[in-house]
Amino acid sequence: MFPQRLDSPLAYEIAKAMMDGFNRHYRLFRSESARAKHRFETADWHGQQRAQRERIEFYDLRVRECSTRLEREFKAGEQGMDVWQQVKLHYIGLLVDHHQPELAETFFNSVTTKMLHRSYFQNDFIFVRPAVSTEYIENAEQRPTYRAYYPTRATLGAVLLQLLQDFDLQRAFADLPRDIACVQAALQQQLGEVTLRANFQIQVLSGLFFRNKGAYVCGKLINGFQEHPFALPILHDAEGRLVIDAALFGEDDMLLLFSFARAYFMVDMEIPSAYVQFLRSMMPRKPRNEIYNALGLAKQGKTLFYRDLLQHQRHSSDKFRIAPGIKGMVMLVFDMPSFPYVFKLIKDYYPPQKDTSREQIKAKYLLVKQHDRVGRMADTLEYSGVALPRARFDDAVIAEIEKFAPSQLEISDRDADGQQEVVIQHVYIERRMIPLNIYLQEAFDAGPDDRRARAQIERVVLEYGNAIKDLVAANIFPGDMLWKNFGVTRHGKVVFYDYDEIEYLTDCNFRKLPQPRTEEEEMSGEIWYKVGPKDVFPETFGPFLLGNPLVREAFMRHHAELLEPSFWQAHKERIQAGYVHDVFPYEQDKRFNPGR
């Protein structure tokens, strides 16, 4: 029971200090995001990449700072439950007029769970559910969350010009009238010959979305009862001038732009929940947790994901099972059939051919988190101390964990509610995809005479090679390129998800296979030439990947260069020279002028 009186002055001081800690965090987070505009205008691509990496660390740094202050000034960890009950109530009071209440609640949870013994982790002491609504928060700044424009067919071009000028980009466009004409034609094609209704308008989020070498205008076209989400990518051309590169329309295009396999955006937001609400109206199929993630607010994404998981468990009855597919040597993977995510544990020991450690594997996953994922590497949610009902686990899963990762498993009634729980000490959670080897096997099973199966093989082999090339462009060598380490998304995109052997491309040495000098060397069953720890021989990929004739034919037609050391060496040299590749979150045929 919460106290009826707030009679502890110390409780208010602790709550105020925690709020100060959060406000400092969001001020720094927002300031770094706002500077993305200047980096884009000055083509500081390496600075943009560096800022995207560093911003991910902001949250944990601020949580540590706040925890240290609370312990130093208030000995907060030693205070009793009565004080902490009042701390939470005071904190709720401080949230009433706050512009980021949901983020501040998550910050409160992070600080308290870092400082207090887990017996305190009850509904009374953390925000299991939101305490303050994020609806109808008004922006005190002059810049609103979104701007509304009211064109007619005759004034559409002039309104588009004003819309773009309102972003105040401090770099000249190469030919803005030309670009506006392209956008106008695309919008009119989207509208067709329909009657423009009284509410015809364009709503655009007032902050540009920056990622890699692009800036994106995100908005929607509203006419009557129809809403058409859209995004306009703005890039630099070869002469360094700005161009609108494409017009993306519809939920599917937006889902690809905001994919879980891409790096986080930088966008200056006073009221993040308003941005999420607007984006959710454009992408109703995308969970709110993934939208928060895409905006760089990963801790809030984790909070919402965990709430979604708990809610799903209340309304489902299936059990966690060992995930379908070939079992990995490093990770143990389980899932719940009705829930579209997989849970991945690092095993306690590995076969001799896997020369690695738990800390090295965690470092690889952190590398992926901080790197540009270019739409080809799945984002992960990382949790510690996750408690799930024992009754929801198939016995085979528990046996598998007890065999391969016993250090990660605790089974107890830690909440003292009479129900056994499975506590996983450390787990990664990813969006579930169809493993590429299973996807291919489905086509193989249909037989070589099945036209649809042949088309499926052709399409996915093309996508697989494109995934490798996108990773190469982002300075990533996947290491283990077997089909089983890639998955197929609901949009048919091929995405890499096994990171224990991942390396920076620039750290690898791509070599041609030496020619045998003697008959003994030619007939030897062992490798007779010297191989360094980072040596890679692309010619050896073929025997592992191209056993099926249909796969081999499609691969050699589209991606034969991946078997040549020269391909990898050339990209490595360009990256080392400082070149940052363009990787587009949309197909080439959507670009207004692919050649520029």
UniProtKB/TrEMBL annotation:
Main location: cytoplasm
EC number: 2.7.11.5, 3.1.3.-
UniProt KW keywords: ATP-binding, Cytoplasm, Glyoxylate bypass, Hydrolase, Kinase, Nucleotide-binding, Protein phosphatase, Serine/threonine-protein kinase, Transferase, Tricarboxylic acid cycle
Family stated for the protein in its record: Belongs to the AceK family.
Lineage: Bacteria, Pseudomonadati, Pseudomonadota, Betaproteobacteria, Burkholderiales
Compartment(s) of residence: Cytoplasm
Protein's name according to its UniProt entry: Isocitrate dehydrogenase kinase/phosphatase
Molecular-function GO term, any one: hydrolase activity
Gene: aceK
TM spans (from-to): none
Active site per UniProt: 379
PANTHER family linked: ISOCITRATE DEHYDROGENASE KINASE_PHOSPHATASE, PTHR39559
Domain (Isocitrate dehydrogenase kinase/phosphatase (AceK) regulatory) ranges: 15-317
Annotated InterPro entries: AceK_kinase (IPR046855), AceK_regulatory (IPR046854), Isocitrate_DH_AceK (IPR010452)
Function: Bifunctional enzyme which can phosphorylate or dephosphorylate isocitrate dehydrogenase (IDH) on a specific serine residue. This is a regulatory mechanism which enables bacteria to bypass the Krebs cycle via the glyoxylate shunt in response to the source of carbon. When bacteria are grown on glucose, IDH is fully active and unphosphorylated, but when grown on acetate or ethanol, the activity of IDH declines drastically concomitant with its phosphorylation.
